[in-house]
Amino acid sequence: AASDVYRRQSIGSITSGTVVISTISGSIDIGSMQALANVGTTSGSIRVGNASGDGEYKSVSGSVEVAYKDVTGDITAGSTSGRIKLTLPSLLSFELKANSVSGRIDVPFKGSNLDGGKHAVYGTVGNSPQVRVSLRTISGRIEVLPGAQQHNTLCTEPFPGVLFSRNAGLCCAARCDRFDAKREEVFHERS
């Protein structure tokens, strides 16, 4: 219905070839998604956990947080006023262009060949990059983080019952019951 574009959109799981989701005034929360995605909101945040595929994410006034477990193509994210937090598989090789007019950019990947400074970072992560990652925000921080697929514990927010990656800051796909940070052990207690 037309009125849905003015409310928060929470979606548990999406599996599709292509998915287009947009709101005028409302946040978008997706627990897991396997698709070529085009997700946008004029006023609200975008949160996607446990993503597979590629996509484009845009918010005029709000943050963009996407956690990928598998990347199959290029990723673009932008926000006029809000931070961008993108979690990618730790072994992914990619080309990166990230710009923030008034925010810091952090890319703590090993094997990075990145140039730039506080507000613009470009270059490659890994060997022989197969995908491009383009991120831009006017007012907000940009973080591109390696996923920690084996260091997880149960989420309470933003997706209850889904698993949380302590390094990624968003939910991800690995299935474990709890994580002992001191010993860096994952406990599988489910039958």
Summary tags:
mainly beta; 3-stranded antiparallel beta sheet; 191 residues; 16 strands; 11-stranded mixed beta sheet; 0% helix; disordered C terminus
Describe this structure in words.
By secondary structure, the chain is mostly beta strands. The protein has strands at 9-25, 28-43, 46-61, 64-81, 84-88, 94-100, 105-106, 112-116, 120-125, 131-139, 142-146, 152-154, 163-165, 171-172, 178-180, 185-187. The strands form 3 sheets. Strands 1, 2, 3, 4, 5, 6, 7, 8, 9, 10 and 11 form an 11-stranded mixed beta sheet that branches. The chain has a 3-stranded antiparallel beta sheet with strand order 12-13-14, with no helix packed on it. It has a two-stranded antiparallel ribbon with strand order 15-16. A hairpin with a 4-residue loop joins strand 15 (178-180) and strand 16 (185-187). It is globular, with a radius of gyration of 16 Å. It starts with 8 loop residues before the first strand and ends with a strand.
What integer value in Å does the Rg equal? Answer: 16 Å
Helix and strand composition category: mainly beta
The span between the termini is: 42 Å
- Written as H for each helix and E for each strand, in order along the chain, the element string is EEEEEEEEEEEEEEEE
Broad shape? globular
Q: How many extended strands?
A: 16
In which range does the helix fraction lie?
under 10%
Helix segment count?
Answer: 0
Q: What share of residues are in beta strands?
A: over 45%
